Amino acid sequence: MAAQSITVRGLSKAFGRNTVLRGVDLDLPAGQVTALMGANGAGKSTLVKILCGVHAADAGEVRLDGRPFSPSGPAAALRQGVVTVHQNINDGVVPDLDVASNLLLDNLAEGGGLFLNRRRMRAEAERIADAVGLKIDVTRPVAGLPLADRQLVAIARAMAHRPRLLILDEPTSSLSLAEAQRLFALIDRLRQEGVAILYISHRMSDIRRLADRIVSMRDGQVSGLFEGKPLDYSGAVRAMLGHEITEVDITIPPPGAPMFEARGLRLKPEAQPFDLVLRRNEVVALTGLVGSGKSALAEVLYGIAAPEAGDMRLDGAPYRPQRPAQAVAAGVFLAAKDRLINSVIPQFDIQQNLTLPFTARHSGPLGLIRRAAERAAAERTIAAMGVVCQGPRDGILTLSGGNQQKVVVGRWMAEASRLLILDEPFQGVDIQARRDIGRRIRESAFDRATLVLCAEIDEALEVADRILVMSEHTIVGAHRNESIDLARLMAEVAGAADRTKEPA
Amino acid sequence: MTSLSPTDLAIRYGFLLLMAGMIVVFSVLKPAFLSPQSAVFILQSVAITGILALGVTATLVVDGFDLSIGAVATSAMMLSAYVMVIWEMGALTAVVLCLLMGAAVGLINGLLIVKMRVPDLLATLGMMFLLVGLQRIPTAGNSISTGMVLADGRTATGTFAPEFLMLGRHRIDFILPDLVPLSVVVLVVIAVLTWVFLELTRHGRVMYAIGSNAQAAALAGINVAGYRVLAYVISGVMASLGGILLAARLGRGDVASGNNLLLDAVAAALIGFAVLGAAKPNAFGTAVGALFVGILLQGLTMLNAPYYTQDFIKGAVLVVALVFTFALSGRSGRARR
Amino acid sequence: MISRRTFAALAASVALAPSLALAQDAPAPFDNPGQVNIALVRYLSTGDFFQAYLSGVEKQAAALGVNLQVFDSRQDAALQADMVDQAIALGVDGIIIQHGLTESMKEAAQRAVDAGIKVVAFDVNVENPKIPQIEQSDRDLARLALEAALADNGNSFVAGYVYVPGIAPLDRRDETWKKVKADNPGINEVAMFGTLDNPIANSVANQARSVLSANPNIQVMFAPYDEFAKGVKIAVDEAGMSGQVSIYSADISTADIQLMREPGSAWKATAATNPAVVGEVSVRALAMLLAGEDPGPQVIVPPTLITQAMLNELDIKNMEELGAKLPAFAHADVAMTPWMKLPPR
């Protein structure tokens, strides 16, 4: 039963100077679900892309049932029995075609006869759909199906190849609870049929339900392998997030008066409501896995999304922003994550990027910008943040990632705010930039409430007075950043604190 | 950044040098080319497309596009003729109604794009067809001129108001008597205003931010939808202003699609990307681009080059300008997206 | 279907009752014109000329009392051929093909003839001996205008010429210009230009300004298409040269009359065929075929010379007055038979 379906040895891959995989060893036994955990950038997707034939490895070897496996492309991988269902559902289906054509798409693409026999196609498609418990009219176009059915179509299509390895990349991220249950039942069946399954997810509840083994990845390497019941879920999370001792001493100042208060805040219909109080002169870090609801909270606070329920107050007054402009006007700023998508204006120079949210404060009658005032403000921020550049008129894209990040974070620290939210402010920056940004966050925090969202626990420990843990869209733990019980914190991140009951 | 390599120099000043070279060549071949009248005339010939091009530049800045400007211009021409010849109203009414029409079309374009989420090219293409048809409906496809017989059998007795015709025909003493037409003055004023708006005000700054990264602009608290709509309103108003000048020059309401106005205006705006290595839509570049095309056509016509060679050369210039923008200066930051 | 058709015929005959009394000697099928259906299949339709042509067709069809159906392909050659087939399928009695391309219309026209339908063609050669050609004589147009130019300016002058090759009527007018130049070596053509960029008058004005500043000695501008002439006139006015340059053109419209009559206008004369008359002649030629008579293989509508002096003398302000005060322009005595009913004047 424990036949090694797939063995990976010493797999390495680099994109330019950026090394993504550094000698990965991995076994995927037949008839077992191996859960793969890793933070963003740990190398999960690159590993998957090598297995399904999108990328070729630089070094190392993959064996499928003992034979060397190096597919020339996705089609070759599919023919040899490695089937992947991607995170983006529409990668797996052609929305404009009907279900039957989708189910038989690979056969169509492979060629064969010139003409399509509609009746035979339909019978064959129904047989495939049946095998995964998909009960729908195969003549319906896929575009009209709910998301979960589309995903089942993608899986059913994959199953037509009698796979030996099925890779599921965050398959439940857009499914409802009931839909996910249907998927889990299907995975159980496939496991019994002896298929090796690689299940990639951030959702601890999924992993608890399905995993026979857990592999944690960090920085392009396997950082932990967990087998045997009961599985050590907290250990897996710790291995994934890592924790190097960093010598940052945080002296926690006396917190000021409450600046922001939320009561009974509910971020999703099925999530538990929670309360949140953020005080003046206090830096609070909110940590949790990807998809745990950190960004959903930021969106609610910044007026991008409305909460399901709950009451928010800012400095004592009711606060319910409809759009970012209202949040900014009220003094709530958000330095967003993923700077190249959400923050950087590539055409602009440093100065223009810095002053973007506050052009009104640097302009006179008719909206004419006061160049001297703008430049002076930019130079102040450049100095305060320690941005390494020739001058404020340098193009933003000439800067290193760390310095770009200093600019888009500094943008929101140039003006006084009541609540400053920083979503992953240390994303993709080197250690020096991380220290600089963290120091600046702390030293400017006395007059406002500060909320830092970060998935990495190290970062939270470096910057925060208080650390909150989020899981399943609610706050599950709070820690003062002194002699923290890391084991408990990790357990909260892994979701151990909540309902431990296993589905029957 | 302090010392410029030859490539950087070529990117920055290449187009201006090319223009200077062109002027020298034409002046040698046809001495009449280098006279104040000739210079003013070049400005006059590009006044209308130049104003349209400045309008379309505003939409390019927010990463949009307005295909309806040619049709807006010819619709304004028909509307002004209708107001004065058939309704027999004055010049001011005609001008105000045309500008309002342009603003309304721009507003509808903007709302289609922002609220209804119709892609910009499709929304403005639809508007173009709509306007080309609409401008023919009131007169059953006929051009409007004094003396035309109306549907009810009356003869139209209204005339183009002299003040209105002045917009296209009056000349101001400048160095020489009767040298500079009013339309050129309008062009220069509009070009300066557009430049000031886009380069020196926070509104222009914010529009460039939207064009470069709309998501980041929205997260910086900017009203992205509002500024997008504003860009199309600017474009519509400018196009209707171009139509007013066109009507004042022709002195009648001509049924026309305005497609050539659109193409020339877009060409000017795209050539503008290459001026001074801007690699982005900009008012100064657009003005220079329009002038470039005007000089080229003036010189070639003086040399008796037939019209198809002129189209060919116009196209070649555009391609070269786009190569300047996208290939050569692509390293230092891309123009769009 | 039958009852509706009978009803339509009945309604038409009631409406036309007064004129029916005069039509007793009309030959079949015009003794019962409400039963006659004709189709106009157009290739070009936008612009004053085509608008006026259509009104002529409509008026003559109404005068005869026949039913007219208009198909408009809007410069789509393939669609125009399909429209002929559509008309055949509808069972019309006669078809007028207005413009189009020989290549695309030749076979469609043959199919119509094969179906027993009478066909005439205006300004398109469908290479079919059974199909009479209606033509406005472009050569005559150019000749009349140039004769006026020679009469006004003598046979030796500096000329500018507006021309875009590849457009059939302009090409025919060009032949005459070449011939006149050959016959009058004193004519010195210093510039040839032209464009069909829309709006044409504006684009031609831009070109003409360049030409005038390059060649300030031009005396005569031959612009054998009224949109060209309008553009040239704008440029001449802008250059302040209207005292020195004379414009000769072809075609006419109400707007053109206004421009020619402006004080000191450089636009001296134009030669024109009334497009409405061409439309009327097209219908009359088709009617003759339907009555079994032969209009001849070519029906040429003669042009009229209209000079600035003529317009001022008769105080003509628009096309209607032109027709009323210049009878040669209002009616062409071609494709006429004794029984033919003409539109009311």
Automatic annotation (TrEMBL), chain A:
Residues of the ABC transporter domain: 6-244, 245-497
Keyword annotations from UniProtKB, A to Z: ATP-binding, Cell membrane, Membrane, Nucleotide-binding, Repeat, Sugar transport, Translocase, Transport
Gene3D superfamilies per the UniProt record, alphabetical: P-loop containing nucleotide triphosphate hydrolases (3.40.50.300)
Listed transmembrane segments: none
SMART domains xref list: AAA
Pfam families: ABC_tran (PF00005)
GO molecular function: ATP binding
Protein name as catalogued: Sugar ABC transporter ATP-binding protein
Organism: Rhodobacter calidifons
UniProtKB/TrEMBL annotation, chain C:
Extent of the signal sequence: 1-23
Keyword match Nuclease: no
Compartments where found: Periplasm
Keywords annotated in UniProt: Signal
Domain of life the protein comes from: Bacteria
Chief location bin: periplasm
Residues annotated as domain Periplasmic binding protein: 38-293
InterPro entries: Bact_Solute-Bind_Prot2, Peripla_BP_I, SBP_2_dom, TAT_signal
Family: Belongs to the bacterial solute-binding protein 2 family.
Protein's name in the database: Sugar ABC transporter substrate-binding protein
Biological source species: Rhodobacter calidifons
